Amino acid sequence: MRPLVLLLTGVLLLGGCILAPRYERQPGSVPQEYRFQSLEGQPQPQLNSLADLSWWELFKDPVLQELIREALAANYDIRLAAARVAESRALVGVSRAAWLPQVGGVALYQRERLSSTSHPPAGPGFNATDSVAQFNFDLFWEIDLFGRLRSLTKAAKAEFFASEWARRAVLSAVVAEVARAYFELRTLDQQLEISRRTLKSYEDSLRLVTMRFERGVVSKQDVYQVKALVHTAGTRIPDLQRLIAQQENRISILLGKNPEDIPRGKPLPQLAVRATVPAGLPSKLLERRPDIRQAEEVLIATNYRIGAARANFFPRITLSGLFGTQSADLARLFTGPARIWTIGPTAFQPIFTSGQNIFILKTTKAQQEQALTLYQLTVRTAFQEVSDGLIAHTKFREFREQQELLVQSYQNYSKLANMRYKGGLDSFLAVLDADRQLFDVELQLAGVMRDQLLTVVQLYQALGGGWENEGKYPGPAPRVYGLNKTASP
């Protein structure tokens, strides 16, 4: 037993040996600030970020908040992501069990008949039939002297964490997608309201022009021109109603429901837009963005798999044993003389594998290089998305200001054209042209309001907001599907 004790002592001393390369974070060059960050006119560097806000602090519409709550509880993408986390956690258990002792039990009873004509011939008193009974426990334990199994377990853990970060990325995406869909729905509502109001105005003008035509004041051409405007506004209404219904269906699916009506909250002009959007420090983005953290965990997993591949070149030591009883007489199976046991280590050293272990190592190194490239690309893409969001938010704010001034100009133009027409100073064609252009710019203003809101959503998601602080909601906390099932393995 002394060699066995010495072997186990050596295992305890060397069991922490892992041949994986030492991991160092390599995101590439990280800028001191985002491009276009200084357009907001704020002092640099910024320690805070728009993403520090919870989604209920950013989106003030109570109806939108309730829609997001429902999506977090029932969205199918979130359900799928939670199931993937559960699968990854179970795989960690499978991997961890591989480097623990495995014990099995065997119970056997069989009766056999031997040939009486076998060579050499059976002697006098030969009994051709015999019985054997056996009951034993088997032990098998791969002693992880060079860290192969531990490397595989750590790789599985990293993949579990990657799946958890992927789930959080889905949370962020769902919050942003519900907000985006809601803003687009309220934009369509606003455009439908403008179209109906404009249609009523055109119908009033048509009645007025028809009366003036019947009195011989205007020509038939003026009547046809107004009718054309009435039909133009009229065709917008059913098309907008179609788009509204389809948008409601889209939101319903995000909420995990069948298509149904969606409640409305604040109208589009009253939906708040932050005047400034602090972006924070680019270095913080590496910790906040779920997709960046996911890519990094995948990289860490490939790093550990290199260690497992290296361990394939070294001896694989297993400890096996057996303890039980065996007897030809079932009645004496559990007596002292029937006891059997065996225990001892086995070492297997690969000598010639046709290069299999070499190619496995090369494969894991290539996978690690791919994961590193993907990680660095994810970081670069994140910086791009934040910069795109910053410039879009700033310029759409300026665009909206100019578009509002443009609408005011056409409103004044329409009023003046009507006054000049009623005073006999201008033709009705000028009134029609002013009303037509006012209708177009009002629809465009609704689209600009939507785009400005969407830039905030885009930037909020680009900065990694939307998945944190689930338990801090004022009032009943939103139930996030799978949130309580994703603890560390």
Question: Can you walk me through this structure?
Answer:
- By secondary structure, the chain is of the alpha+beta class.
- It has two domains: 16-99 and 144-314 and 353-485, Outer membrane efflux proteins (OEP); 102-141 and 316-348, Outer membrane efflux proteins (OEP) (Single Sheet), CATH 2.20.200.
- The protein is built from ten helices and four strands, in the order ααααββααααββαα.
- It has helices spanning 2-14, 55-58, 62-74, 76-97, 148-214, 220-254, 282-288, 290-311, 356-422, 428-462, and strands spanning 102-113, 129-143, 316-327, 339-348.
- The relative contact order is 0.18.
Brief synopsis:
By secondary structure, the protein is α+β, with helices and mostly antiparallel strands. It contains ten helices and four strands; from the N terminus they run ααααββααααββαα.
